[in-house]
UniProtKB/TrEMBL annotation, chain A:
This is Carbohydrate ABC transporter membrane protein 2, CUT1 family (TC 3.A.1.1.-). Its main location: membrane. The keyword Transmembrane applies. Residues 73-266 form the ABC transmembrane type-1 domain. Keywords: Cell membrane, Membrane, Transmembrane, Transmembrane helix, Transport. The keyword Magnesium does not apply.
Automatic annotation (TrEMBL), chain B:
This is Carbohydrate ABC transporter substrate-binding protein, CUT1 family (TC 3.A.1.1.-). One of its GO terms (cellular component) is ATP-binding cassette (ABC) transporter complex, substrate-binding subunit-containing. Keywords: Signal, Transport. PROSITE patterns: PROKAR_LIPOPROTEIN. The keyword Cell inner membrane does not apply. Pfam families: SBP_bac_1. One of its GO terms (molecular function) is maltose binding. CDD domains: PBP2_TMBP. It comes from Goodfellowiella coeruleoviolacea. The lineage of its organism: Bacteria, Bacillati, Actinomycetota, Actinomycetes, Pseudonocardiales. One of its GO terms (biological process) is maltose transport. Residues 1-32 form the signal peptide. Belongs to the bacterial solute-binding protein 1 family. Transmembrane segments: none annotated.
From TrEMBL, chain C:
Residues 110-316 form the ABC transmembrane type-1 domain. It is a multi-pass membrane protein. The chain crosses the membrane at residues 50-75, 105-135, 147-167, 303-324. The keyword rRNA-binding does not apply. This is Multiple sugar transport system permease protein.
Length: 281, 428, 333
């Protein structure tokens, strides 16, 4: 970075600021439109104005008055966090083995995990439903956590092993020479170095779990485990033919906040992890 | 098939216990062993589309059941496909915990043919048919047997602005001519209808075909007919789309766009369900006093238009363990009293004729006489177990309506619909 | 199923063969430290055990959840089985495949899907790379840019699609009002496809950018410094130094985005519901399998989509050779 950034002249700063603004505008304009829809009153909802002419908090009041929404929010947070944690741990273990160790069946594992990522999920939902029903997992947290882990693992394994390959492994060797077992080398030396990949993966997996609609709608039946994307389709409009645009927009805004918090928390680590590794290297 | 528990009620604490996935597998048999029904009272599970105040109707019926059984309302997703998908998935798995099912009027033949719903007989049947309008009742029948009880119905009306149009048109030709005149005079002139590639386009086409006296499928649903009336219907639809007075976004218009488009003020006519009346009072109070209704336009001046029937029917699942209570529940949920409550509070038109005469109906349904008139001379969508596939094909082939070539399109529809009702070939 | 998994095992094997030959300078300075086996049979055994142990949980979960459903889908694709006509169930071999592959509807959807996939993935790669560079290197408000840039990916797809739909609806949307009152772009084929692509690109570029940014984080500073001293231009530093190190990250990003893009559903469903021949193969699968309840034909479509993406994945792994996970481990330590 230092190479290219050179000295921090004001001109550079201004140029970067302009680029930043472009990025922010690109990313945020459609989001602001949703935000705007969520603040519009029913009368002005369809006027096509980007900025609401009349503002209201009614939509937010409505969704937080619905116990189902609050419950769904709790489900979403719990399920996504648990699934992310487990998927990242399992993915890290497997990816380390794939990137570093020689053992039979490695290629099969890599191939099979890709196959799973590729099979159209819409075809898997019905059989999964029947399995979960007979195991008593239907409409429970584990009933969603398990598929989420499964379908995020391939991405996790691929991402992580791609990053693990680029890590300077001589450090591990050094640790082993100092008497560390392979397990210790993994925990103490490689894990911190792997942080950028791990946190990138965590963000992607979390967003995947957070946004999933297909499994959420198919494998839940009550608020016991229904997550927000599924709960959105139970919001009612004024009649069968009118979509509750206002409340859906408000809910979309609310459920984006945890994502922002999650990303804010983890994005620092993406570089922090590397810098610490590079210093050691 | 150990899993007898699915409803998740009264299991909160246990759910927490299984909230970690390692524990889950170990505990699954224990969860399953602990059956439903809690305190020994029979539970009747009703699966129904979201309707704001339907829980109150359920509460009423619970009070009537006086503790003999407990009705639990399970709300299905908002969109019809989502509702059907959830019910079908469970029925295909032989789920015994669904008792009463809310079916869109186009699903009854499918569910009946697949053996998922129980036939109505004897006293229950007589009760369901008593005072019920013939049109909605027809949607609940399959092969001359009754498989459901109509809960609420729906028909589209022709809505127009009386500040622009003095005399509502009786036919499509009259309507298009009037709109063209308005356009030439520089006034709001659009004609709005549900022309997107979805069920609404099929409803529009079915309405036109029935008004022209045509048929799409044979009575028994076994053969694609596409007779002269159906070809005439294609011509009318095409002429409308290419008339220059259809909305430019016709091919992307669903009920909501039609309603909002009219409220925005550029249109003179709209074909839509009665919900637009209440929506107009809120959405554009200035325009509301000029918002008037008439019978759906016909194809020939001497035959009034026939509107396609919508709405929901209640059926009892074949896998229900409590058939008697389920029938009783269904009858209570669609009783005259319940229907009146839902009509006034949720805007869903009743299927029992006498309800329309109730004094409270006047305020919520100023257009109730016209609804009733259309309901007595209605159009029913083709009855076939493969309706969903037939509908997907029709909406595909009819879209965009401007590209219809009546003879060729009819030929294509006849061929592809025949495949669809025999479950051959690919649905687009 | 077995056919497909063999295919995939083969491609990994093939990639690994190329890998051994090519591997070397490509990964820059870090590559030089890796080399051949300390062959101790005791250590080897321990390594195998550890490898299997580390992979076992992930493998078990994946197989437990998806094994049966995938096999069942393949089995269904060989049957005539329509839930609406349960009595007519029978084994028909490959008949369903002939039905689907001879349907013009299938091929139209296939073409649309392929077009959407190629266009959106290319755009995403270019934009994603630009975004990644900005996110990685900006000297002003880095945390803000990184977080904000990821928001589109975090928005629930259906909601995002609806917001585009409203924005493009004449009379009620700000974008539609910008292009003029009487044009409904979503009702014309090419503009509708363009809108679908833009919605898709906007939504998923952050996914690409995040993976690429993490790849950028692996590019050693001293390497860039050395290249700059040797007089390499910014573009040369990018193509000769950064891209090779990022190759694995690029592969993963491209591979998973392509596989996902080929299964596009939500955006089309909301924006056009497939009108004007904009339906994708996933929408068609949904219409046959879930809506049409034709389990035979619907499952056949799923398997065909699966085979198609397997071929795409195979090509990717071939092209990227060394960068494919699990490809070159024989020679690396």
């Amino acid at each position: 970075m230092a190479v290219i950034a050179g000295t921090d002249s004001t001109g550079r700063k201004i140029r970067w600021t302009l680029l930043d603004i472009v990025v922010v505008v690109y990313a945020l304009v459609p989001v602001l439109w949703i935000l705007s829809l969520s603040f519009k009153t029913p009368e002005t909802l369809n006027d096509g104005n980007f900025i609401p002419r009349a503002w209201t908090l009614e939509n937010y009041r409505l969704i937080f008055q619905t116990p189902e929404f609050v419950r769904a929010l709790a489900n979403s947070i719990g399920i996504a966090l648990i699934a992310t944690a487990i998927a990242v741990v399992l993915g890290t273990m497997a990816a380390y083995a794939i990137a570093r160790l020689d053992f039979p069946g490695k290629r099969v594992l890599v191939g099979v995990s890709l196959l799973i990522a590729m099979f159209p999920q819409v075809a898997l939902v019905s059989p999964l439903f029947e399995i979960e029903r007979s195991l008593g997992l239907f409409n429970t947290w584990p009933g969603l956590i398990l598929p989420y882990i499964t379908f995020s693992l391939p991405l996790a394994i691929y991402t992580l092993s791609a990053f693990f390959r680029e890590i300077p492994w001589e450090l591990e060797k050094a640790a082993k020479m100092d008497g560390a077992t392979p397990g210790q080398a993994f925990r103490r030396v490689i894990a911190p170095l792997a942080a950028p990949g791990v946190f990138t993966t965590a963000i992607l997996v979390f967003i995947f779990c957070w946004n999933d609609f297909l499994f959420a709608i198919s494998l839940t039946s009550t608020e016991a485990s229904r997550t927000v994307p599924a709960a959105l389709s139970f919001f009612t409009g004024a009649s069968q033919f009118e979509d509750p645009t206002g409340t859906i927009s408000a809910a979309a805004v609310v459920i984006t906040i945890p994502i922002i918090v999650f990303v804010l928390f983890f994005q620092r680590r993406i570089v922090a992890g590397l810098t610490s590794g590079a210093v050691k290297g | 098939m150990r899993g007898a528990t699915r409803t998740g009620r009264g299991r909160t604490s246990r759910r927490r216990a299984v909230a970690t996935f390692t524990a889950a597998l170990a505990l699954a048999p224990a969860v399953a062993a602990c059956g439903s029904g809690g305190g020994g009272v029979t539970t009747i599970n009703v699966y129904y589309a979201p309707e704001q105040n339907f829980q109150k109707v359920v509460d009423q019926c619970n009070a009537k059941a006086a503790g003999r059984y407990r009705i639990v309302l399970n709300t299905l997703p908002r969109d019809a496909d989502g509702q059907r998908e959830q019910m079908v998935r469970r029925l295909a798995a032989g789920d015994t915990e669904m008792d009463v099912l809310g079916l869109d009027v186009t699903w009854v033949s499918e569910f009946a043919e697949a053996g998922w719903v129980t036939e109505w007989t004897g006293e229950n049947k007589a009760e369901a048919e008593r005072g019920t309008l013939a049109g909605p009742l027809e949607t609940a029948r399959w092969k001359d047997k009754l498989y459901a009880a109509p809960k609420n119905t729906n028909v589209q009306l022709l809505w127009y602005r009386d500040d622009l149009v003095q005399q509502p048109p009786r036919t499509w030709d009259e309507m298009l001519a009037a709109a063209k005149q308005l356009k030439d005079a520089g006034k709001p002139s659009q004609v709005l209808a549900t022309g997107a590639q979805y069920e609404g386009l099929v409803v529009l086409y079915n309405t036109i075909v029935a008004s022209a006296g045509g048929q799409i499928l044979s009575e028994d649903g076994g053969r694609a007919v596409m007779d002269a009336g159906a070809v005439e219907g294609l011509r009318v639809l095409r002429d409308f789309a290419t008339s220059g007075v259809a909305s430019p976004s016709l091919t992307n218009s669903k009920e909501g766009e039609v309603q909002r488009g009219f409220e925005a003020g550029a249109a003179a006519f709209e074909l839509n369900w009665p919900f637009v009346y209440a929506a107009m009072q809120k959405g554009n109070p200035e325009l509301a006093p000029h918002f008037k209704w008439a019978r759906i336009p016909g194809v020939t001046p001497d035959v009034p238009g026939k509107a396609t029937i919508g709405g929901y029917d209640l059926a009892v699942s074949s896998y229900s363990q409590h058939q008697d209570e389920a029938f009783e529940t269904a009858l209570c949920l669609r009783s005259a009293e319940s229907q009146k409550f839902s009509a006034i509070n949720d805007g869903v038109p009743p299927t029992i004729e006498s309800v329309y005469a109730e004094p409270e109906m006047a305020e919520a349904y100023p257009m109730r006489d016209m609804i009733l008139e259309e309901l007595k001379d209605p159009a029913v969508r083709p009855l076939t177990p493969a309706y969903q596939s037939a509908s997907t094909i029709m909406s595909k082939v009819l879209s965009p309506p401007g590209a219809i070539d009546p003879q060729a399109t009819a030929e294509r529809l006849r061929r592809e619909l025949q495949d669809a009702i025999e479950s051959k070939g690919v649905v687009p | 199923m077995s056919e497909a998994s063999q295919l995939s095992a083969e491609n990994v094997a093939g990639a690994s063969a190329t890998a051994r030959g090519v591997r070397g300078g490509s990964a820059g300075s870090t590559g030089s430290a890796r080399r051949a086996k300390p062959v101790l049979s005791e250590g080897k055994k321990a390594e195998r055990r550890l490898g299997l142990l580390l992979c076992a949980p992930a493998a078990l979960v994946m197989i437990a959840v998806t094994g049966w459903p995938i096999i069942y889908s393949v089995w269904l694709s060989l049957q005539r089985f329509d839930l609406r006509f349960p009595d007519q169930r029978e084994f028909v071999g490959l008949d369903n495949y002939i039905t689907v592959l001879s349907s013009p509807y299938w091929w139209t959807a296939f073409g649309v899907t392929a077009l959407l996939t190629v266009v959106s993935v290319v755009l995403e790669l270019v934009l994603g790379m630009a975004l990644a560079l900005i996110m990685h290197r900006t000297i002003v408000g880095r945390g803000l840019v990184r977080t904000v840039a990821l928001i589109p990916y975090g928005i629930v797809t259906v909601v995002a699609a609806f917001s585009w739909y409203y924005a493009w609806t004449p009379g009620t949307g700000y974008l539609a009002n910008l292009v003029g009152p009487d044009t409904a772009l979503l009702t014309e084929r090419l503009p509708a496809l363009a809108i679908i692509v833009s919605a898709e690109v906007w939504k998923t570029t952050p996914f690409m950018a995040l993976l690429l940014m993490a790849g950028l984080a692996l590019v050693p500073d001293d390497l860039l410094k050395a290249a700059a001293m040797d007089g390499a231009s910014a573009w040369q530093r990018f193509t000769r130094v950064m891209v090779p190190v990022m190759k694995p990250a690029i592969l993963v990003a491209l591979l998973f985005r392509t596989l996902d893009a080929f299964r596009i559903f939500d955006n089309i469903f909301v924006l056009t519901s497939g009108a004007q021949d904009t339906a994708s193969v996933s929408m068609q699968t949904y219409n046959n399998l879930i809506k049409g309840l034709n389990l035979g034909v619907g499952s056949t479509m799923s398997v065909l989509i699966f085979i198609t993406v397997a071929i795409i994945a195979f090509v990717f792994v071939k092209v990227f050779g060394t960068a494919a996970p699990g490809s070159d481990q024989g020679g690396r330590r």
